[in-house]
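Extended Data, panel c. Modelled sequence:
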Amino acid sequence: MCCTTLNIAGDNDLEINAILSQLKEERDRLNTAIGALEVVGTGAPRKTGKRKRVMSAEARAKIAAAARKRWAAAKKKGKTTLAA
């Protein structure tokens, strides 16, 4: 069965050659992608692009003042926690 020949008309030869060409191009693209992933996989972890959020000193001061205000109100009522 391994050594059988196919009787293919001339038009089919062009289609088969076109399919083979496309498959080989796809194989080359996949090999390139696999190679790139192998290189990346062996190096240090890459940053994902998520940036650390930075808060301005003014914003931190506002939040701290609001927290102090909440704690002062809680102490006034005699509460030791701010649970709702």
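The chain has two helices and no strands. This feature is highlighted in the accompanying rendering.
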